[in-house]
Design brief:
Layout lengths: L2 H15 L1 E6 L4 H4 L4 E3 L1 H10 L4 E5 L2 H10 L4 E3 L15 H10 L4 E5 L4 H6 L2 E3 L4 H6 L7 E4 L2 H11 L3 E3 L12 H10 L4 E4 L5 H5 L3 E2 L2 H10 L4 E5 L4 H8 L4 E4 L14 H10 L8 H17 L1
Parallel strand pairs: 1-2, 1-3, 3-4, 5-6, 5-7, 7-8, 9-10, 9-11, 11-12
Helix pairs in contact: 1-13, 3-4, 11-12
This protein binds iron/sulfur cluster.
The site of iron/sulfur cluster (SF4) has 13 residues, from loops.
Amino acid sequence: MGKKEIISRIEELKKKRNAVILVHNYQLPEVQDIADFLGDSLELSIKASKVDADVIVFCGVYFMAETAKILSPEKKVIIPDKNATCPMAMMIAEDDLRNLRKEYKDSVFVAYVNTRAWTKALVDICCTSANATKVVNSIEENRKIVFIPDKYLGDYAMRKTGRDMILWNGYCPTHVLITEKDIMDKKNKFKDAVVMCHPECTPPVIDISDEVLSTSGMVKFAKESKEKVFIVGTEVGLNHRLKKENPEKIFIPATERAICPNMKRITLEKVLWALEDLKYEVEISEDIRRKAFNSVKRMTEIV
Ligand code: SF4
């Protein structure tokens, strides 16, 4: 089946199933192009909860589809490839977290939304890359904070807020591929460019960037900025959206190596098969879902 035929079959099935396709900013360009909604993980999950649909096809990694299910228990949430997982989300195991909770009994546990449902269920509050600083600032001064799983986002929030935190030793294997040298090389070549980087990057990269932004923050900044040339320090997939929405501007990936292989597992064919067979359905026990929901809700109440 050719690409055109696959897309028209997807459109047909979408109507038949009353489905919407949510696509993360790091997905392959051809998958981004069939999106009903394109965005970052929390943006998409909130969209999923508001949209009138029976089926949500989530093109992203597993924890993202889980987050959509946490917010929309009445909808069928499917992910076209159940092996599309996030290595960072898996850098903390359930036993690790339970032991940490015992060790730091009186601390407030903050989890980045890039975590599995069971992780969210075991912490006090979630945060995103866009609101980590606000969430940390909202915690009473006399409370100790444990931040999981991303040590770089945690370090960024720690430096911005001046709060001392215990950081779990997790990180995003894609964002650590962006080096200080990559940024300096690009800066030397494109002297007028603005450097945007994601807070999952390492501290030396963050320190030489002009703007530290989430992917939705980059989309907004690129649109509103008067600047013409941008060096983009995040997963390369975002460049497709940035170019499409700002054809008159130039976007240069900090490095072409910053590819998340799990994000790229989802293809047009897999989206079609997912709609044909309604698989792979995301299921979460109601107990975990409710507890995870509370951690996400506490974050939305603050921000
Ligand atoms: S880019 Fe990093 S944080 Fe995002 S899904 Fe891939 S490994 Fe996980």
